[in-house]
């Protein structure tokens, strides 16, 4: 089968032939990929940012946002059958550790992360686990939902955690209306009564944000912090969702957060520099977010199938993976890029 393989950090991946995966364990599932999302994390992987954390054996297949059709199942699999349409939780988990039993799947003590620590889904087939498969309506097109498997669940997870803070009369700020942010805006519009203010430097992204439910938009032109403060009576927002968290956004996000408010970090790549006095004197919280639970993904898919969350995508053939990555890196993708084998 064809797969997008990374042979070395700081090198472009290549599309090459590799053996098809097969089920070996009783709970294994092989999925024929119908859509594989292209994520900024893939760029960070290529740059070597995850080398110390995951250390996969190179070369390996990248891609951690996957949906498709069940191709083969292990002997003990009963939750899905061959032919079922599925979206895959990005981290197959054990179901037995404390984190899994507490519903915090993404912190499973024995989880794997296809696409980061082993072969992922930018390929024609992917080996995963029955525990990762969320069954979808048969008419669902995997290419339309694939990126919800990571970008979507990550945005939804952050919004869902913040729901108790977003009661009527509050304001939330969304930094970045791109691949992650445009999903977060829709989740906020669907689940909260909070006023949504979106900040981005791209006019097209802000136009999309307004169409998706943003009440106000702010151009990131160097005056974005003061603009947000002006719109909130000088206090800042109760919650700030930072879907960028690099190139200075990580400093803006905390500065836009009101006293006793919460700054949710979802994107990454930058470094937060905040005097500890500024944290304790204002009681502002910094909240980290990583992926989400299986139930988060299942709930998000209900929103998607009800038409409340829609992915804006640009599709590429699997053989054009390098082009898709390059387009993402240079800001030529509005929403999410998706590879279709």
UniProtKB/TrEMBL annotation:
Record EC number: 1.1.1.1
Reactions the enzyme catalyzes: a primary alcohol + NAD(+) = an aldehyde + NADH + H(+); a secondary alcohol + NAD(+) = a ketone + NADH + H(+)
InterPro entries in UniProt: ADH-like_C, ADH-like_N, ADH_Zn_CS, ER, GroES-like_sf, NAD(P)-bd_dom_sf
Name listed for the protein in its UniProt record: alcohol dehydrogenase
Residue span(s) of domain Enoyl reductase (ER): 8-339
Organism domain of life: Bacteria
Leading EC class: oxidoreductase
Coiled-coil boundaries: none
Cofactor: Zn(2+)
The organism of origin for this protein: Amycolatopsis minnesotensis
Keyword rRNA-binding: no
Family, as annotated: Belongs to the zinc-containing alcohol dehydrogenase family.
PROSITE patterns named in the record: ADH_ZINC (PS00059)
């Amino acid at each position: 089968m064809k797969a997008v393989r990374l042979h070395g950090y700081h090198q472009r991946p290549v599309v090459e032939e590799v053996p098809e995966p097969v089920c070996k364990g009783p709970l294994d599932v092989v999925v024929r990929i119908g859509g594989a999302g292209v994520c900024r994390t893939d760029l960070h992987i290529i740059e070597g940012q995850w080398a110390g954390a995951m250390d996969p054996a190179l070369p390996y297949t990248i891609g951690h946002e996957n949906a498709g059709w069940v191709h083969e199942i292990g002997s003990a699999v009963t939750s899905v059958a061959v032919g079922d349409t599925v979206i895959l939780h990005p981290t197959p988990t054990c179901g037995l550790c404390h984190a899994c039993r507490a519903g915090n799947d993404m912190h499973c003590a024995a989880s794997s992360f296809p696409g980061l620590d082993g072969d992922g889904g930018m390929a024609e087939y992917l080996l995963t686990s029955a525990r990762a498969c969320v069954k979808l309506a048969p008419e669902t097109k995997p290419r339309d939902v694939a990126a919800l498997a990571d970008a979507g669940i990550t945005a939804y997870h952050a919004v869902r955690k913040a729901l108790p803070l977003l009661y009527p009369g509050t304001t939330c700020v969304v930094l970045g209306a791109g691949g992650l942010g445009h999903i977060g805006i829709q989740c906020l519009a669907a689940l909260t009564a909070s006023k949504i203010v979106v900040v981005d430097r791209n006019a097209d992204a802000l136009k999309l944000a307004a169409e998706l439910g943003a009440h106000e938009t702010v151009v990131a032109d160097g005056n974005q912090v003061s603009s947000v403060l002006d719109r909130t009576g000088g206090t800042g927002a109760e919650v700030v969702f930072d879907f960028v968290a690099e190139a200075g956004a990580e400093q803006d996000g905390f500065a836009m957060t009101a006293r006793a408010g919460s700054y949710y970090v979802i994107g990454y790549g930058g470094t937060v520099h905040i005097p500890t006095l500024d944290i304790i004197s204002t009681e502002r919280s910094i909240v980290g977010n990583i992926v989400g639970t299986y139930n988060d993904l299942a709930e998000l898919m209900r929103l998607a199938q009800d038409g409340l969350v829609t992915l804006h995508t640009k599709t590429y053939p699997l053989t054009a993976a390098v082009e898709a990555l390059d387009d993402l890196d240079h800001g030529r993708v509005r929403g999410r890029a998706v590879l279709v084998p």
